[in-house]
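We treat protein structure as text, and this decision shapes the records that our systems exchange. Because each token names a local backbone shape, the row as a whole describes the fold. An entry from our holdings is shown next, in its original layout:
>
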Amino acid sequence: MSFEKERSADSGHKLGFDNIRTAKSAAESCKSCALWKRARQTVFGEGPVPARVMLVGEQPGDYEDVSGRPFVGPAGKLLNTALNRAGIDRAAVYLTNAVKHFKWESLGKRRLHKKPSRREIEACRFWLISELELVKPRLVVCMGATAVVSLLGKEVRVIENRGKFFETNLAASILVTVHPSAILRAQSDETHSLEFERFVEDLRKAASFLRA
């Protein structure tokens, strides 16, 4: 399937960082939307640069906001297990999120995810495009709706397009799948097991890009 997306971003910054360290450093002071006010820090991506495969999640969680690293909480642990099952070394892929600050709401002493708005996704898209330009992946795996909206647009739905590839001007291919946190929210052990196996199958499609 083919889908073209503009490379521009309305962040007030200019594209063209020399390296990923420079981009990460610049992102630490980003105030393009209000999410920085309640987040502890910017959570940028990590992994090899360049990389054949880039995994894009939705936003940092509580664990990520504290540590400053992507996918280190419960969803990250599930992702690690799925990557291993799919035959992918986490160290071989670049991991990041579409939104770099943790958006949350309180539930007692807990900080729970709150879905980013379209404005917040668009404000943060600049950093994701910068990562794409530096990492130069052959395949981008969009995990969850926020990642899909950022790179493919709101008309592409995760459920209807799960496991499908899209041709874009951002990477040779973009693969759509669910976010690991959606699997953690499964209502039963049976559903959890089924969804996890489907997720592994999606990641196995990404594994072929690492072997090419």
